[in-house]
Amino acid sequence: MATAAPHDPLLVLDRAEKSFGAVRALVDGSITLYPGEAHALLGENGAGKSTLVKILAGVHQPDAGSLVVGGAPVVFAGPSDARDAGVSIIYQEPTLFPDLTVAENIYMGRQPTVAGRRIDRRAMNAAAREVFARLGVVLDPSRPARGLSVADQQIVEIAKALSLNARVLVMDEPTAALTGVEVRRLFDVMETLRAEGAAVMFISHRLEEVYASCQRVTIMRDGRFVRTAPIDEVTVDEIIRSMVGRDLDALFPKTTTEPGQVVLDVDGMSEDGVFSDISFQVRRGEIVALAGLVGAGRSEVARAVFGIDPRTTGTVSVLGEVLPAHRPRAAMAAGIALVPEDRRQQGLVMDLPIDQNMALASLGRLATGGLLRRSAERKLAADWARRLQLKFGRLGNPASTLSGGNQQKVVLGKWLSRDPQLLIIDEPTRGIDVGTKAEVHRIIDSLVAAGMAVLMISSELPEVLGMADRVLVLHEGRITAELSRADADEDSIMRAASGLTSGATA
Amino acid sequence: ACGSSSDGGSASSGGSGDGTLQEGLNVYFIPKDTQNPYEVLADQGGQAALEELGGTVTISSGTEATAAAQIPSIQAAIQAQADAIVIAANDPQALCPTLQQADSAGIAIVAFDSDFSCDGFDHLFINQADTTTIGTAEVDLLVQNMGTDSGQIAILSAAASATNQNAWIDAMKTYIDEKYPNLELVDTVYGNDDPATSLTVLQGLLSAYPDLKGIISPTTVGISTAAQYLSNNPDVASRITLTGLGLPSQMREYVKSGVVKSFALWNPTDLGYLAGYAAANLASGTTNLDTGATFDAGRLGSYTVDAPAGDTGPSVVLGPPTTFDATNIDDFDF
Amino acid sequence: MTATLPRPTPAGSTRTPVGARLGGLLRARETGIALLIVVVFVAATVKNDAFASANSIQQLLLGASLIALLTVGQTMVIVTRNVDLSVGSVVGISAYVVGMTFRDHPGTPILLGFVVGIAVGAFFGAVNGAVVTLFRVPSLVVTLAGLYVIRGLDGLLVDGVIINPQSIPRGFQRIGFETVLGVPVLFLLVLVVVLVAAYAMRSFRSARDLYAIGSNPDAAELAGIPTQKRVFTAFLVSGSLAGLTGALFVALFAQVDVTAGRGYEFLVVAAVVVGGVAIFGGSGTVIGAALAAVLLNTIDQALVSSRISGFWTDAIAGALLLAAIAFDRSLSLRIARKLRTQEGAHRDV
Amino acid sequence: MSETAVHAETPRDSGPAPTYEGVDTARPPRWRLALRWETALVAILLLTLLIGSNGSARFFTGTTFFFAGLNIGEIAIMALPLLMIVLIGEIDLSVAAMLALSGAVMGVLWQSGTSFGVAVAAALVTGLVGGALNGYLIAYLGLPSIAVTIGSLTLFRGIAQIILPNPTTTPFPTEVATLGVLPIPGTQVPYSIAVFTVLAVATATFVHATPSGRSLYAIGLQPEAAEFAGIRVTRVRFELFVLSGLVCSLAGVLFALKNSSASYSAGFGLELTVVAVVLFGGVSIFGGRGTVAGVVLSLAIVAVLQQALTQQQVQAEVQNIVTGGLLLASVLVPNAAAAGRRVRTALRGRGRPAPPPPTPAPTP
Ligand SMILES: Nc1ncnc2c1ncn2[C@@H]1O[C@H](COP(=O)(O)OP(=O)(O)OP(=O)(O)O)[C@@H](O)[C@H]1O
Ligand SMILES: Nc1ncnc2c1ncn2[C@@H]1O[C@H](COP(=O)(O)OP(=O)(O)OP(=O)(O)O)[C@@H](O)[C@H]1O
Ligand SMILES: [Mg+2]
Ligand SMILES: [Mg+2]
User: Fold this and answer.
1) How confident is the model at residue D18, as a pLDDT?
2) pLDDT band for position B216 (50/70/90)?
3) Shortest CA gap D228–chain B (Å)
4) pLDDT value for A266
């Protein structure tokens, strides 16, 4: 059983409520954290997890409810109050300063100083290096944060939280962008912190991570506390049922279809310093996965195919027709859709209403005589909101009011409504709860069954293995392996991804 | 006192009046901008004139010295059915359409300080001093102060588009060619009546022409900025002679310290006073724009309308400019 | 989960040169501007050797001083992703109030002139800052409105009455023209302010907060930075320095009317941008901006001194300004590309 | 220890889940929020008219409105492309300089004996070229528009000064010169306002009812996401600056006709007025928010207010203060409630007991 000693709780949040206008994000937010425990908080997208976190962080002030830290009731007026009370947070979305150095990002506002309150850069960089060593990563503390990969950004966030030596460490989906190795290192660090008597609260949509690292679990649904239980007393199915409120169908539904005509044909595509000599095909009724380590260049390949990024050599053709480089319009006209990996920057216009976001890629089709029909726009959005079971207040609310997973659904709807020949989907279920994940998979599967071609990029091996008909493995910008569904397993993919391949083709 | 007693056409009927000025005249004074110190004095002169005549002056203009900023004031004069407009034009032409409307509305139009030239209607220009006189006087003053009539000289002007400045500069050039062939006018720079710009172009001028001997600045901001620079840089002052048009109040210190020996200007208050009388007479029909027509201008005595010449239409000349030097500068307080 | 595989890091070794190189580049930006100043200076001297005379150089430094001083405050404001367009108007009104003080109270100590100027500037800076932070409204709109309102107030105050040199104490004017070892006092004063500000912007937490705010305002809030307080302070400093500039304007020109400081906002923003301060916040240095002010003034004076007709100066100055921005951009793009290829190469190792 | 402490077995499942709502296609309330400033503008306009009519009996005459239209005409025309440029999150400070440059080109050519039509065409081409220069530097080189257009405003006016050192003196042909100053026969509508009306209707249709118009908002709010949605962000940026150059040169032609002359200093300082009018119309300086209606109302207010205040002999300085005050109001009023709340919270927060000092962390 868990190592949690029957101490007094470190932190108790009781019946916290929070509404944003008409949206009741949190109806009953309750959680108790004990020293020395790792505590998972689970729930569907939009269940109110991040809202709860932001209350612990002092970002949001609860409308009702109480918070007790270290036995004393507290009111956090702002993030610094929470930090001073020993609560440190890793937010769901990275909060870095791109213009400042990595070290400065970590120690912002508490830079080590020397006489005269001047900042001691050398000490700061050394301290940052120490934290990185503890995490087992190599990152240059004096480089600017701009241009860091999503994973490295997350590492910096973790380093920031760790360096605070907090009593309570709250992590909102820290692993969404990390590789297996990094995740493991993070768990090691969590273990150390627990041993030192801190409490760790951990949010993730990957249940296997929860089982690997946590002692207790709290489940939320629709803004309400549902239950708290020791992890070894609940099964995966029980957790999912508590989260979703029903039993779940298969996580990876897979209809076998006979691949048809070649939809996408990429031949010898290269771009200096990014990827080289990329050749592959995607057929109708087939899901091809691009696997590889973070930074292998998968997203760049996808973006170059779609025309967002340039490419210097090689051809890309759709249904036999060669696409001009660097022209997303042409790619769209040829039937390509791209669901990008960063939904907040690339997928959505956060301040535009949900319906306008859904329609953004189809504006031309929604116009008659050059004039946009608002009713058609709203109908399109309403249709797809229903089909994707979108959870929202009003279609006229800005997309920023949606939870992460529901935002992803809007991006999906935006592209699926175009009825594409080829769907390129980059990290389709990053940050998406299991219920929705199954839905997304089901949607993709049914589209493929209906003859669509899919190029999927995913860092989650189970997803790759569960969904793909073929797996292309990328290593440092080159395709190092092409594996059939039968040949693909964790081992073969990881070997190719790390360049250790000797078996498969190149 | 918005002129509603005497309705329409009071001015347009020309010199058919009975020789008495109307009471209760409403005259709009429209300076280049509301803050031009020189024209603030002129406006005061105009106010004094209309006070003597039992009328009123409305001063209206923009905060920027542009034609566009003056247009609403002319429009307001039309809407208020003013009897006369006295204007220092920021542009020789841009105001014509609006002034034409004022003329059509029966408003007498007088220009002062800076004239305009429009087709379609006539107006009276109150000339501070005639252009040639100003040009020759300044060149003579410079030569006299330099003590030689040979060497390099330059001009520090206001805006490149300032009509009056350009007319004076042309007059100077002609005069130099005629009378002082050894004097070399090397450059004209524009300080836009802004101290900082004036200083920059002055410095550039000095480094571009190390042998420069004299500077004429026919604008109050230019000459005072240059004088300030010279008094701060005695070594430069020892080889450069400065003269031009300036306000005695601004130049007093420099004349006393000897940085500037002498400079010229007419009395701006008198200029406005004369313009006020001219406007009142035109509006009352007690004078007209015919060459030789006369009118009485209060304490300044009687004036006669000069014949049009060149670009200038009917005009009245205030009188020769006054030269200020150490002996008389304390007698003036503007 | 997967086997223990080494994570491909962008820069393999602990002592990676990437950061150091980037730091070097940042410094190179200032060096670049300094070089440009030298180029313009040499070119102008070749055309006319009087440009290199001691007096001419003195004037060069003097001419740039006021704008350089303003760039200090403006840099602090722009770094926080704001802008202060009211500086020109604030210079104007502070200059007039300083002049008025001397005129109406003969015998006012010189030091008090500075205090009055700074106080007037600080007042308007505080108003700008308070409105921006309390209402959380875009500073461009607030300070554009401020530009009009303050100019209007200045106009009411001036009412067409010029402050003349004889109203300004000679001792105060001396600041405008006296030199120490051939260097103008006013320039030295500005230099001190610039250096102090440059040092502070590098070395103090609260100053680093400004960069953080401009770099990512939301994250700054989350990091517990008192963002509103810092932004307010930036505006306060900008206003105070504009007030100081107003006092120095009086010292330099010894006359003030309503046109004082007019149009400075464009000159200052141009200098700050040429100086490499990102207009959308987060990066840039006080030194770069101040050097750019010197560069722009050198160009202006070089054009006059090279006997280029006054009609041409504006066009050439505009073209050079565009060229400077474009050049700077293409340089940084090229460097970024080079860095990327190098990193790509590194990946292949 | 088996079960947890506080929230043991009873999941408090009280009441139905609140967040699953039906598909709601009703007009969002955000629209009403956005409309609020336009409503305020209407109120301000009525107030302005009231002030105007109170001060002068001759205020409610056709002439007043003709004058108001005449004075604002070119500003109004230039405000339309600027509105779109601000919508995509950029700014164009070179508008007034382009007005002067195109007028100068027209004036010089006309003076040198070119036919009037050719002179006008050349002016418009100047606008295209100048706009393309701005557009190229901003869209394709990625330079910040505020910096570029400060540079090009100096450049444009500088070129105007080179080609036209002194104001032209040759008057334009009377048939066309009267277009600049006389109303459309039988009305009190200046030609420039007629041109503006046509352009405003076109702009409103484009911005509010076409796919491209919608993409302006997307670009202004999040350019990267717009790019990923297939919107040609770079090209739109370029085209808008070219359009701005062209429209400003048209304004320059009208301005020259109105003044029956050209001058390099035409419209000096007007760039800030145009920007102010657009912002006063409720267009967000950060892009992505604003309506044509707001800008039209703002133009009407500025034009009428100027007539009212000048007729009532309000000092020009005070007019400046009023202009600035209104601009300030445009951002303060919509934020006043939030600001008040913030102040109240801050005060209340001060009244509450401070959070207790943290007990020392269990870490070494
Ligand atoms: N600022 C806000 N304004 C309006 N609604 C909001 C806001 N923040 C969150 N919400 C709403 O509150 C609900 C809870 O959101 P929250 O981000 O806490 O979910 P979550 O459990 O973290 O989901 P995910 O797993 O997708 O991150 C959602 O319905 C969301 O749309
Ligand atoms: N070696 C590197 N050095 C610097 N930046 C890198 C490096 N590798 C990747 N990045 C950055 O990280 C981002 C993600 O990289 P990329 O898109 O190639 O990864 P991916 O294979 O798609 O992985 P994922 O999308 O899962 O993060 C890129 O935008 C790139 O800028
Ligand atoms: Mg969340
Ligand atoms: Mg990727």
Assistant:
1) 30
2) very high
3) 46
4) 96
- Domain containing C156 equals 53-261
Interatomic CA distance for residues A115 and A103, integer angstroms: 20
**Do A55 and A188 sit in the same domain of this protein?**
yes
In this structure, is residue A2 part of a structural domain?
no
CA distances to A121, B39, B44, B303, D315 from B50, in Å:
74, 16, 10, 17, 20
This complex has an ipTM of 0.85
Interface touch B204/C305, C-beta < 8 Å:
yes
Q: Which chains touch C (3 or more CB pairs under 8 A)?
A: A, B, D
Q: Is A149 in the pocket of ligand 2 (CB under 6 A)?
A: yes
Give the CATH number for residue D300: 1.10.3470
Task: Give C330 to chain D, closest Cα distance, Å.
Answer: 8
Distance D8 CA to ligand 1 centre (A): 26
Same structural domain for residues A77 and A156?
Answer: yes
- With residue B151 as reference, give the H or E element that holds it: strand B151-157
| Same-domain check for residues A330 and A352 | no
Q: Report the percent of chain A where pLDDT is more than 70.
A: 97
Domain count, chain D: 1
Chains B+A touching (3+ CB pairs under 8 Å):
no
C344 lines ligand 2 (CB under 6 A): no
- Name the minimum distance, in Å, from the CA of C146 to any CA of chain D: 6
Residues A189 and A65 in one domain: yes
Report how many Cβ contacts below 8 Å link chain A to chain C: 141
Q: Tell me if A104 is assigned to some domain.
A: no
Best probe of the A interface among C215, C227, C277, C283, by most A CBs < 10 A, is C215
Beta-sheet pairing, A113-114 with A262-271: unpaired
Minimum CA–CA partner of B249 in chain C: C164
Domain count, chain C: 1
Taking the C-alpha atoms of residue C304 and residue C44, their distance in angstroms, rounded to an integer, is 10
Ranges of residues in chain D whose predicted pLDDT is under 70: 1-35, 168-169, 345-364
Helix (H) or strand (E) holding C147: helix C139-158
Give me chain A's average pLDDT, please: 88
Say if C6 falls within a structural domain.
no
Cβ burial of D325 (10 Å; 0-12, 13-18, 19+) is middle
Contact assignment for D261 to B62 by CB distance below 8 Å: no
Final residue of a structural domain among A244, A279, A302: A244
Q: Could you tell me if residue D3 is inside a domain? A: no
**Which residue of A149, A477, A494 is in closest CB contact with C2?**
A494
Q: Of A244, A262, A296, which marks where a domain is finished? A: A244
Between chains, do C322 and D151 touch, taking CB under 8 Å as contact? yes
- Per the structure, the complete domain to which residue D308 belongs is given by 29-44+59-338
Report if residue C89 sits inside a domain. yes
D296 interfaces chain A, CB cutoff of 8 Å: no
Q: Which residue has the higher pLDDT, A295 or A37?
A: A37
Residue A417: pLDDT above 50?
yes
CA-CA distance, C312 to A69, in Å (whole number)?
A: 71
Q: What is the mean pLDDT for each group of 10 consecutive residues in chain C (349 residues)?
A: 36 41 58 88 88 84 93 97 95 96 92 96 97 92 94 91 87 88 92 96 93 93 91 97 96 88 90 87 92 90 79 84 82 70 46
Residue whose tokens read 């080179």: D162
Cα dist. A401→A345, A407, D337 in Å? Answer: 15, 9, 21
Q: If DSSP codes are grouped into helix, strand and coil, which group holds residue D355?
A: coil
Q: What residue of A is the nearest CA neighbor of D225?
A: A346
Number of domains in chain A: 3
Least confident segment among B33-47, B307-321, C26-40, D316-330: C26-40
Q: Does D321 touch chain C (CB under 8 A)?
A: yes
Q: Which domain holds residue A350?
A: 342-419
Is the torsion defined by CA of C119, C125, C130, C131 positive or negative?
Answer: positive
| CB contact (8 A) between residue D328 and residue C131 | yes
